[in-house]
Amino acid sequence: MVNNIFFLFLLSHLIGDYVFQTSYIAKYKVSKLSVLLLHIFIIFISMFLLFLPSSLNLYNLLLLVILTFVHLLIDILKYKNRDKKMFNTSEYYVLDQFMHFSSLMIVSLIYNQTEFFINFDLAKVISLGLFNAYFIGLLFYMFKGSKKAYKRDYLGYLLRFSLPIIKYYSNTFFLIFSLIFVLTTIYLAKKNEESIKIELGPLAMSVIITYLSIWR
């Protein structure tokens, strides 16, 4: 069973690596060291603030510093190999995030769980919402192999983000809303709405992930 505190680590990662990663940072962190270091600083601040007041503990603070350094090492791997084809594929994107998630899981097992401002249930719901909104959307974009620059689909973000919240409060409403979301998307996709077709896969996967992850 996944440790509850893991979702707090996941939330901090998603906030630092996705929510607060602007298009400028995403574009230049692989080519400009100053931008990469700014990104790493945002990662650390995201963790430090979310883990307050436990992050004031010296042992826990050291773990957060180590985790930040590991994040830097993973990103430097891409920074050093940015011109190699393998490091710009969807497969490497999955591997990159797998390394990040693995480091989060390991540290979550040894983190001293003292006191937190944020509730674990809330952290789980929000982290899964952000995971659906950002990670799943970008994953489908990468596997599609589009040559167009990635653009944030805020409507899609909102739909996928809302799923864990709805599921947390009502299984019945979740099933109803999920059915409406998917059927409406399929209907619009048949009308050759390209943007809707692109959204169908991420939405369907988000429904499955939410259903398997949120239990009340």
UniProtKB/TrEMBL annotation:
Transmembrane segment boundaries: 6-26, 33-52, 58-79, 91-111, 123-143, 168-189, 195-214
Could you tell me which Pfam families the record lists for this protein?
DUF3307
Alphabetical keyword list? Membrane, Transmembrane, Transmembrane helix
Q: Which domain of life is it from?
A: Bacteria
Q: This protein is called what?
A: DUF3307 domain-containing protein
